[in-house]
Design goal:
mainly alpha, two-stranded antiparallel ribbon, 25 helices, 2 strands, 1% strand
């Protein structure tokens, strides 16, 4: 969620509603710890509060799915399956709500169902590495080494630096007595996870198979109990449900949604105190404080989050937007760049980064970044407009490109014929020296503003008329 002038983002799932056909299960919560029971109750209340409303499908699915995850995390499988199905009904394109039932089946020992569900999901969502890795793990546990090898090879192609996937490939090679391949996979896994000393045992077996008895002995001596698992953010989110921090995050999220920002900040503080190593709690606290106008407090919370997790994208984005809103453009740049690099499809981060470069006195770099942004997001009208404006009226005359500016401006205008996009066309025409045409475009804006009774727009467009009436009419130059 983007919030306020700083464009801050809350780093937890939204709350939605249920709407399944059958009566939902109501597990007995009396035997659970009070905090756990309250966590589930809060989630169920959030679902019920949106029942029958016009909430977006994604929000409904998130609420249903998160309630399912809570039941899943605390061992209530039937209720979990119900809410996962309800989530999938609302957002069938979201692979998580098909993945979690398969994960539940795996954990319950129903490997045949888990494999069937994961195989179907892998076909529907072929670009998700943890789906292929989980499928390979299940197939390996079922003794289907050849199938496991194929699934894990797909996972490796998508995530080649994941030591957990390499470890599983090593297990497949061991089961098929391909000793050299096993060594290659397991050594790669060990290099990627040097503290996972359980890998040494498997390496010892592989070396023994090769007849390298001394190397096998050395590896066996180093074996330990620390294993390695493949990267799986969906499974991590499931594990997160079991932390007490989650309850306070839910309270804070609901308070924030209700506009009770003081209460939200208090809840997020409790979450941070409960989980000293949680970046997420501090990101949410920063968002609440920023909304309350406590800029210093918000920045401090975000800085703490980045100390815990230097690669936290939400924290970088929020800090960058907050600093940009304060006019501290140079300070914002590093954070905005980190946000763009982590999420190249973030239109807002790209635009604010370019603006920060421009306002920091580096229009050439701003132009380069806008060019990259346009290449990455060619359908973004906002990026095209910003780039066209810089090409038509940027402060460095030698860096302007009127022809390209006109092409972009015309595309923007055709997609959305507004006064601003019409003015952009006029700017590009003026940069090319087509002053009469620029004047024609600007007159259209003046006439339309006058007819609509929009005095402010008419005044702005009249200023454009005066500028394009000069000789030369090139933007930013004087007669």
């Amino acid at each position: 969620m983007r919030r306020g002038t700083a464009g801050a983002v809350l780093a937890i799932l939204a709350i939605g509603s249920a709407g399944a056909q059958e009566e939902p299960p109501t597990p007995d919560l009396s035997a659970l710890e009070p905090a756990v029971a309250e966590q589930i109750t809060v989630l169920r209340t959030g679902v019920d509060s949106l029942e029958g409303t016009s909430a977006p499908a994604e929000e409904l699915a998130a609420a249903r799915g998160e309630l399912g995850m809570a039941y899943h995390a605390y061992g209530m499988g039937d209720a979990a399956r119900y809410w996962y199905a309800a989530a999938a009904a609302a957002a069938p394109e979201d692979a998580r709500w098909s993945y979690y039932p398969a994960r539940l089946a795996q954990q319950e020992g129903d490997l045949a169902s888990a494999e069937e569900d994961l195989d179907l999901l892998a076909t529907r969502s072929p670009d998700v590495p943890q789906v292929w890795a989980r499928l390979g793990e299940v197939q390996l546990d079922r003794g289907e080494a050849a199938a496991a090898g194929e699934s894990l090879a797909r996972a490796f192609a998508l995530s080649p630096h994941d030591p957990g996937i390499s470890f599983l490939l090593g297990q497949v090679a061991l089961s098929e007595r391909r000793w050299a391949d096993a060594v290659a996979h397991l050594e790669r896994a060990q290099a990627g996870a040097p503290r996972a000393d359980r890998i040494h045992y498997s390496l010892g077996l592989a070396y023994r198979g090769l007849g390298a008895d001394e190397l096998a002995r050395q590896e066996m001596e180093k074996r330990g109990d620390v294993g390695v698992r493949f990267l799986d953010p969906w499974d991590d989110a499931l594990t997160d449900m079991e932390t007490g921090e989650r309850l306070f995050l839910l309270r804070g999220r609901q308070a924030f949604a209700a506009g009770a920002y003081e209460d939200a900040a208090a809840a997020f503080r409790q979450a941070a105190e409960f989980a000293p190593e949680s970046a997420r709690a501090r990101v949410n606290l920063g968002t609440a404080l920023g909304t309350l106008g406590d800029t210093d407090g918000a920045l401090a919370a975000y800085e703490e989050a980045l100390e815990i997790d230097p690669r936290n994208v939400t924290a970088h984005y929020n800090v960058g937007q907050l600093l940009a809103g304060l006019g501290r453009w140079r300070e914002a740049l590093g954070h905005l760049r980190a946000a763009v690099e982590a999420n190249p499809d973030d239109e807002d981060a790209r635009l604010t980064e370019a603006e920060a470069l421009l306002r920091s006195g580096d229009p050439i770099a701003a132009g380069a970044r806008l060019s990259e942004a346009h290449d990455a997001l060619p359908t973004s009208g906002r990026i095209a407009a910003a780039y066209a404006r810089l090409l038509a009226a940027g402060p460095v005359l030698e860096e302007r490109d009127g022809a390209r500016a006109l092409m972009l401006a015309q595309q923007v205008y055709q997609a959305r014929p507004t006064p601003d996009s019409a003015h952009l066309v006029a700017l590009a025409l003026a940069e090319l020296g087509h002053c009469e045409q620029a004047l024609e475009w600007e007159r259209k804006i003046v006439d339309a503003a006058r007819e609509a009774g929009e005095a402010e727009l008419e005044q702005r467009a009249s200023a454009g008329l005066a500028a394009f009436s000069r000789d030369p009419c090139r933007p930013g130059t004087t007669p």
